Amino acid sequence: MSSTVLILIDGLRPDAISPANCPSLEALRARGASTLRATSVMPSITLPVHTSIFHSVPPGRHGITTNTWAPMARPLPGLVDVAKAAGLRSAFFHNWEPLRDLNRPETLAFSYFRDNCYTDPDGDQVIADEAVRYLRSDRPDFMFVYLGTVDVYGHNHGWMSPRYIEQVRRVDNAVGAVLAAIPDDHAVVLTSDHGGHDRSHGADIPEDMTVPWVAAGAGIRRGVDIHAPISLLDTAPTIARLLGLKAHADWEGRCVEEILA
Ligand SMILES: [Zn+2]
What we know:
single chain, alpha/beta, eight-stranded mixed β-sheet, 10 helices, 8 strands, 34% helix, binds zinc ion
């Protein structure tokens, strides 16, 4: 098994990576397996999609369809819940508060939240720095690092606008700081929850639904372009496999076998 770090850049369109010039992201892709054509779920909105990423079922199954907190209509265990049941230690780092409800109580070993994604262009760097500190001191089995500012720049200035692209470049630095701290015996998965168009997202159109999905590190094949369709529902089953866990029977995604070394 490999300890695994999941990095999520909120609202990152895959076609922004090249114009933004993202050396950290590109280096991760070069040493791992990746696609720029993974698919989100509908509605392509942050909390519904995150609930789907962690529970491997679409919003129609878990019932979270807006960014306003509500209990799952038909609850099922998520990735962190399954990891906890197996005795693994998980940690969350985020700057968008509603993500605290992605896991059941008493499943996290550590969590760090700072309300800075709307106010601080370097807010993601703060989250990254805390994640690096904890990674070095405590070596969790699974760590989630959520970086929220790119989505804010999309809403404020427009997806693919110069200010949005500039922010993608800035967040690549924060990603680089986390990647540099991850030991060689760990795996990394990096993705986004949705893209965007104009100053919005949530629609069933390619600009909103297409996201990057990258895996690299221990247990992952190097230099692979993933050609098979990837859904964000595949994230939890794949990370479970990397962690040496069985996917929960109710999860609907698949482990992306073709990336495994
Ligand atoms: Zn989002």
